[in-house]
Amino acid sequence: MIRPLLTATLCLAASGAFAGKAFVSNERGNTITVLDTETWEVLEEFPGGNRPRGVTLSPDGTLLYVCASDDDTVRVFDTASYEELYTLPSGPDPELFVIHPSGNPLYTANEDDNLVTVTDTESHSILAEVPVGVEPEGMAISPDTKWVVNTSETTNMAHFISTEDYEIKHNVLVDQRPRYAEYTADGTRLYVSAEIGGTVSVIDIAEDGTPTLRQKIGFEVPGVLPEWLQPVGIRTTQDGSRIFVALGPANRVAVIDGESLEVIDYIMVGQRVWQMAFTPDEKFLITTNGNSNDVTVIDVEKEEAIKSVQVGQQPWGVAITPN
Q1: Residue 320 half-sphere exposure, CB side, CA atoms within 13 Å?
Q2: In sequence order, what are the residues at sequence separation of 6 or more whose Cβ sits closer than 8 angstroms to the Cβ of residue 41?
Q3: φ and ψ at 118, to 5 degrees?
Q4: pLDDT value at 127 more than 90
Q5: From CA 323, how far away is CA 224, in angstroms rounded?
Q6: Looking at residue 19, what is its pLDDT?
Q7: pLDDT at 23
Q8: Which residues, other chains included, contact 261 with Cβ-Cβ below 8 Å and sequence gap of 6+?
Q9: Phi-psi map region of 321: left, alpha, beta (phi>0 left; psi -120 to 50 alpha)
Q10: 288 with 269: CB under 8 angstroms?
């Protein structure tokens, strides 16, 4: 039964008895698993549409947005009741998205149509469709909100889209099959993972937003075949001192020093680690492990995995409520 804990969960929500929640999309199970970020217990599992992948939250944490890729829509849920409220037009095969810090609009990568769709989250209408490279996936928004970055898996580029007129102003060639993009909090740097290329591209950002490729970071783990080292999700600490990179079938998260750009550690996690999210205090980093059907909780300060929690079938994305 998908919703055995709903009554208990609603009672807890009404009393304010628990703190944060982590929402995990289960791509094969077509569900969303909800975890309590204090106890790491499963609170709920509810239907998330067909092939849910990217997940994100409204800035106030009250709404959960889900890329229901095989439904060609974005499903929107109440984070307290888990009820589906409405859908948003997303374009075909939405995979990943990023939301404006104000909560509007939503920028979505449409893998099948080579577009980035800009959706007004209030009027539920499409504001623009931006042609990009082949198989777009990764999405990021600059801290000053002037730029949205999309990565195209087949074109092997990061496209810098102006949020003023929705035109591509810059393109940066990266390695094969770029999957994710992440700005530093100060906006001076962008990291782009390349799954097949096996690298993370470091892109410096000038004051006017102009990007320049600085270098590429590679990975090497004793006993792990090079072709298994497939960088996907990236997360940086607020101070930029550490960058965490999910390495897919290598079953590890790489830790990179933000100043030297050297790999300083590898953390063993579950099988086929894909996406990640910090708790608001950055005490923990949660990874989704698609082939072991679990998430790993990493102690960020200690740089070690401390817990594994079973979720649904083939977890893909994760989003954590703000403070």
Answers
A1: 24
A2: 35
A3: -105, 120
A4: yes
A5: 38
A6: 64
A7: 98
A8: 202, 215, 217
A9: beta
A10: no
Cα(68)–Cα(215) distance, rounded to whole angstroms? 35
Q: Residues 168-195: what's their mean pLDDT?
A: 98
Backbone dihedral angles phi then psi of residue 66, each to the nearest 5 degrees: -130, 125
Each residue of 245-261: pLDDT tens digit?
999 999 999 999 999 99
Question: At residue 179, what is the residue type?
Answer: R
Quick one: which H or E segment has residue 36? strand 31-36
Give the pTM. 0.93
Which tokens is 90 given? 């997303």
Look at residue 1 in the predicted model and tell me its pLDDT: 36
pLDDT digits (tens, 9 = 90+) for 56-74: 999 999 999 999 999 999 9
Q: How far apart are CA 161 and CA 132, in angstroms?
A: 9
- Burial of residue 199 (CB within 10 Å: 0-12, 13-18, 19+) is buried
- 3-class SS at 179? strand
Predicted local distance difference test score (pLDDT) of residue 323: 75
Q: Distances in Å between the alpha carbon of 49 and those of 66, 76, 214, 274?
A: 8, 10, 40, 20
Q: Torsion over CA of 141, 29, 6 and 96, rounded to 10 degrees?
A: 10
- Phi, psi at 211, each rounded to 5°: -95, 145
Residue 45 in 3-state DSSP?
A: strand
Q: Could you give the 3-state DSSP secondary structure of residue 89?
A: strand
Q: In whole angstroms, what is the distance from residue 31 CA to residue 66 CA?
A: 10
What is the dihedral sign for C-alpha 137, 142, 232, 156? positive
